[in-house]
Amino acid sequence: MSQQNGDHEMADADADAGAGAEANESAQSEVRQEKQMLRLLPGSTDTAASFAFEKEDHTLGNALRYMITKNPSVEFCGYTIPHPSEPYMNLRIQTDDDTTVFEVLRKGLEDLSELCDVVEDKFSVARDAFNADNPDRAEAQ
Amino acid sequence: MSREQYTPPTLQDRNAGPSSSSQQSQTQQTTSQPYTGGGFNLTAASLDALGDDSRPIHYLCGDCDARVTLKKGDAIRCKECGYRVLYKERTNRMIQFQAR
Amino acid sequence: MTMAQPLDVSRYRSERHIPWAPLSAEEIEARRLVQINAETVTHTAASDFPGHYGPEQDDSWVVERFRQGLKVDFHHNKPHDAAFSLVGIDASIANAFRRILIAEIPTLAIEDVFFLDNTSVIQDEVLAHRLGLIPLTGGREGLDWLHWFHRAPSKDAFTMQTASDGDETTPVSTHNDYNTIVMTLDIECRWATVEKDGWDGKKKAAEGDVAPEEKYIKSNVYASDLVFHPQGKQSEYFSGENAIRPVNPEILIAKLRPGHRIHLRCHCIKGVGSDHAKFSPVATASYRLLPQITITQPILGADAKKFARCFPRGVIGYEPDAATGEQKAVVKNPMKDTVSRECLRHDEFKGKVKLGRVRDHFIFSVESTGQFESDELFLDAVRLLRAKAERFKRHLTELEEGR
């Protein structure tokens, strides 16, 4: 019964939130502490470190790898999924001396977020323009 | 375990087994008592719960699909057409499946 | 340097073949091409990384540059099938969108089936599986409002157990109106009778009528026979045209004969495609790279005709050649090409044509199963990738603070 109440609280929290998946997750974090999904692997320094991302795969791994490799102060960036039946993705970053892996990872995530904003904008504009030009969207099912 | 120690499963074991549905739990509660092991503890309560053997059971005729009611000791035979193959009816319990 | 020539960096380095970067516009264009040869595919890896062409070439991430380079082109946009081009994006990003479309956008599907009666010929577990695969739809707002149902991890699912080791943050849910949709199916087949239906099915059978629909009533169970039962708050979100229903009411679930009955209750929950394909919002979500055909020397007359026949119809067209007055083969619509490489098998075209694919031109095809519209699904995928990035930004902050 207590669980039921918990769920009702969540409903109030995300009443106005957007896309389904994230809405529920962000709502949960308000009720209780969000679980830490990012871990620093042992043996890391400020300019060379490996991060373990829990419950992530090639979707985020490869996209993030690309964004981080785009950073000129990064010497090396690669990702691996050590074992297919364990839900971990490891990301290795090595940087120049003038920055740290944390700055680089943060910039990578920010860039990826920015990229998504741009794609969303451009896609919506193109879609709306196309729909305006082709008002008949009916189709035989 | 040696051969001599082995005890065959009994009626008691069947009652103690896990239930697959919530509807079953009702019947289970009436019979629930500590499992005393050994397998041979045929108490009056456990026999009661199973129902006595004289309770009529319904079957379906394999030939004419008529409903046949049999009690213990009755001839296994359809009362309508005399056919000797009878089928059990589907359980009236709820059964849960995952849609996977 | 001609445009079609490969950009082999090691060669440039050793022979000083071209001046060192920055690359000319031509070279930038050339490195967009994946080269397709008779037996091999070369230049498959992207090279737009800082340092690849030395310090002079600026390949670092600049959002304005990306915005200018990105192009979205719609080919068609129907609720169940959208096709569009995404130009100026890396394969890793395009693939992330594709993977999210298939496996990470949540949808509603039947998860638990409670059989009260099933005397049909189709077995309980098979029927349950069939029901699970029926695409459901309903009000978009309500589907977004619906919560996750957290199932207790299965005892024999190793991955689930390792993932939830010491994980008290995701408790097991109980079914309630926020996370579970209830549907029922109660249908019994019988002979058609004069009193109820106006004709006698048994008589028709005796007369030799073999059509089941003539003899029996409710011999086919369709998805439209599923009845939605709103629970609690659900009636606010799922009423009228927003009711939870199968996308296609004509999906055949089972076939019955007189006396057969199916009576069951379904619990539908929200889930993602990585858990089970029934939760995937798309039938397919795929992309291909835009084919490029470069005719380097004129192909004329009968050769042009033969050349056009190496490609699907509409790819190659003809133009009068100014020099000879003959018909000349020209590329009309490379989008239609399948890149069969047939033209590379004929000697008369040797050295006259080059095939390739544009590395950053993705022709997406998204076919929704109907719960959401295809174009909306792609936007959801983009938002979900951003949400992932934002989530790990939060986790990174926590990680740095905890250090």
UniProtKB/TrEMBL annotation, chain A:
Keywords tagged on the record: DNA-directed RNA polymerase, Nucleus, Transcription
Domain DNA-directed RNA polymerase RBP11-like dimerisation: 49-121
BP term (GO), one: transcription by RNA polymerase III
CDD domains (UniProt xref): RNAP_I_III_AC19
Compartment(s): Nucleus
Biased composition (Low complexity): 16-27
Region (Disordered): 1-36
Predominant location: nucleus
GO cellular component: nuclear DNA-directed RNA polymerase complex; RNA polymerase I complex; RNA polymerase III complex
Record-level Gene Ontology MF annotations: DNA binding; DNA-directed RNA polymerase activity; protein dimerization activity
The organism's place on the tree of life at top rank: Eukaryota
InterPro entries, A to Z: RBP11-like, RBP11-like_dimer, RNA_pol_Rpb11_13-16kDa_CS, RNAP_AC19, Rpo11-like
Biased composition annotated in UniProt, kind: Basic and acidic residues: 1-11
Family classification: Belongs to the archaeal Rpo11/eukaryotic RPB11/RPC19 RNA polymerase subunit family.
Protein name in UniProt: DNA-directed RNA polymerases I and III subunit RPAC2
Source species: Neohortaea acidophila
From TrEMBL, chain B:
One family name in Pfam for this protein: Zn_ribbon_RPAB4
Entry keywords, A to Z: Metal-binding, Nucleus, Zinc
Matches recorded under Gene3D superfamilies: RNA polymerase ii, chain L
InterPro entries: RNAP_P/RPABC4 (IPR006591), RPABC4 (IPR039747), RPABC4/Spt4 (IPR029040)
Main location: nucleus
Keyword Nucleus on entry: yes
Annotated GO CC locations: RNA polymerase I complex; RNA polymerase II, core complex; RNA polymerase III complex
Subcellular compartments: Nucleus
Residues annotated as transmembrane: none
Keyword Metal-binding set for record: yes
SMART domains: RPOLCX (SM00659)
Bias type Low complexity, positions: 19-33
Region (Disordered): 1-38
GO biological process: DNA-templated transcription
One GO MF term: zinc ion binding
PANTHER family the record matches: DNA-DIRECTED RNA POLYMERASES I, II, AND III, GEO11084P1
Identification of the protein by name: DNA directed RNA polymerase
UniProtKB/TrEMBL annotation, chain C:
Subcellular location: Nucleus
GO biological process terms on file: DNA-templated transcription
GO molecular function, one term: protein dimerization activity
Domain spans labelled DNA-directed RNA polymerase RpoA/D/Rpb3-type: 81-395
Major localization listed first in the record, in broad terms: nucleus
Keywords: DNA-directed RNA polymerase, Nucleus, Transcription
Gene3D superfamilies linked to this entry: DNA-directed RNA polymerase, insert domain, RNA polymerase, RBP11-like subunit
Xref: PANTHER family: DNA-DIRECTED RNA POLYMERASE (PTHR11800), DNA-DIRECTED RNA POLYMERASES I AND III SUBUNIT RPAC1 (PTHR11800:SF13)
UniProt-recorded name of the protein: DNA-directed RNA polymerases I and III subunit RPAC1
Originating species: Neohortaea acidophila
